Amino acid sequence: MSSVFALLLARESRLLFRRPAELVNPLVFFAIVIALFPLAVGPESQLLQTLSPGLIWVAALLAVLLSLDGLFRSDFEDGSLEQWVVAPQPLPLLVLAKVLAHWLFSGLALVLLAPLLALMLGLPARCLPVLLLSLLLGTPILSLLGAVGAALIVGLKRGGLLLPLLILPLYIPVLILGSGALQAALQGLPATGHLLWLASLAMLAVTLLPFAIAAGLSISVGE
Amino acid sequence: MPRSDRYCRVEVDGKPIVTSPFLEALALACERDWRMLFERLDLALVPGDMLQVVGPNGSGKTSLLRLLAGLMQPTAGEVRLQGRSLRGQRAELARNLLWIGHAAGIKGLLTAEENLAWLCALHRPAGREAIWQALAAVGLRGFEDVPCHTLSAGQQRRVALARLHLEAAPLWILDEPFTALDRQGVAQLERHLQGHCERGGMVVLTTHHRLEIRPATFRELDLERHAA
């Protein structure tokens, strides 16, 4: 069972590396959205610093969502998902491996890019550990939640805006906790409480959401 | 066909016992987009059977195959595996089933060997040697490490069909397996299907093509006769 998990991780990584544009696009989107704000609200460093926790989190959230739109599409179209559903391997395990591979390359890259953009917005360097930690705990939740939506809409001819409409409301707790942690750090307050909440949400997401994603895929494949 | 004909009669200690067919459908109905495709459909498969589902476009051939493979739920009726409802037996079906849909699960960015290694690993991992032999058997020697998107439609179909040489599942459900194959490929596949049935396997397939080589157990199921 664990060998299938490892094999699927290897397969997904191979696929992502043979189509690198899909990895790079969300990162470029993330950078551009953040770069737009100083242009729109003016280069006042005090204002940008105050806004930066929210800006970074909203941009990260949108970038993750953008990258997830096509998560299962090609697997649906070429019949791979049918093969997963009829296979004796547990489907939740397979989707967990798939989402994990996706997060390892797009989510983690986003986490690593974030400090650079945060410094650009004038976030003090002492807040960077909290920024990294909150994104490290938060982005897997975003990926898993988004995958539930992606699994449900994969069979629709025109998914379009449905995924954001379906999933963005579910992102609110993560957004509040993530940007809250950063806000606290910015004001010199302890951020541990927020981070622990994020960690417990991440645990819940990793254990429960693969079942929801698998159920969504079974519905989409069965239509 | 009367259902009683399709039950296996086995003799144990001189006493005949009747066992259920391997796979059977009872009063199956299927509705898609508010349209009844077929209803009151019964069928039964015992080891060695080959069943070709025929019918005009849109008559529900693919839907029937997907119902039998457990990918879809029937509108009415029931699919049974060894006499028990399919619902509680997904794992049992999965161990015994090889499903190749119209889209066969072949990734264009992966090579033929990588594709087969993964598809086999979903059931039972296959060694590199076995995969190369299977690819050679479907006439793809020398194409093992070529990305599949560079192969022709017929060659991609052959990559998917190479699984028929690799996996040990007794029940094969194949949706349009002959699509894009050349004449020699068609004859080869027909012989392979016949061999599988003669070894006690079961094949359910859809195709518009008339099979030249067929096992003695060959039957046709015309969906037009079950149309609502």
Account of the 3D structure:
- Chain B: GO terms for molecular function: ATP binding; ATP hydrolysis activity; transmembrane transporter activity.
- The complex is a heterodimer of chains A (223) and B (228).
- Chain A is an all-alpha fold.
- In chain A, helix 6 (91-120) packs across helix 9 (192-222).
- Chain A has one domain (2-222).
- Chain A has 9 helices and no strands.
- Chain B has one domain: Rossmann fold, CATH 3.40.50.
- In chain B, 26% of the residues lie in helices and 28% in strands.
- Chain B has helices at residues 61-68, 90-96, 112-121, 128-137, 153-161, 183-198, and strands at 8-12, 15-19, 23-32, 35-45, 50-54, 76-81, 84-85, 97-100, 171-175, 202-206, 218-222.
- In chain B, the strands form 3 sheets. Chain B has a 5-stranded parallel sheet, with helices on both faces. Chain B has a 4-stranded antiparallel sheet with strand order 4-3-6-7, covered by helices on one side. A two-stranded antiparallel sheet of chain B has the order 1-2.
- In chain B, a hairpin with a 2-residue loop joins strand 1 and strand 2 (15-19).
- The radius of gyration of chain B is 18 Å and the shape is globular.
- The A-B interface holds A 3-4, 7-8, 11, 14-15, 18-19, 74, 77-80, 82-89, 221-222 and B 66, 69-73, 91, 93-95, 97, 99, 101-110, 114, 117-119, 121-123, 125, 147.
Summarize the structure.
Chain A has 223 residues and is mainly α. Chain A has helices at 2-17, 21-41, 45-68, 73-77, 80-86, 91-120, 128-153, 162-186, 192-222. Chain A is 83% helix and 0% strand.
How far apart are the termini of chain A? 28 Å
Structural class of chain A: mainly alpha
As a percent range, the share of strand residues of chain A is under 5%
Summarize the helix and strand pattern of chain B as letters: EEEEEHEEHEHHHEHEE
| N- and C-termini, Cα separation of chain B | 19 Å
Largest sheet of chain B: 5 strands, parallel
What is the molecular shape of chain B? globular
Q: Extract low-pLDDT stretches of chain B.
A: 1-5
Helical run tally of chain A = 9
- Gyration radius over CA of chain B: 18 Å
- Low-pLDDT segments of chain A: none
Helix content of chain B: 25-40%
Task: Bin the helical content of chain A.
Answer: over 70%
The tally of beta strands of chain A, per DSSP, is 0
Number of helices of chain B: 6
Q: Strand order across the biggest sheet of chain B?
A: 8-9-10-5-11
- Output mean pLDDT of chain A: 91
Count of beta strands of chain B: 11
| Assigned CATH class of chain B | Alpha Beta
Number of domains of chain B: 1
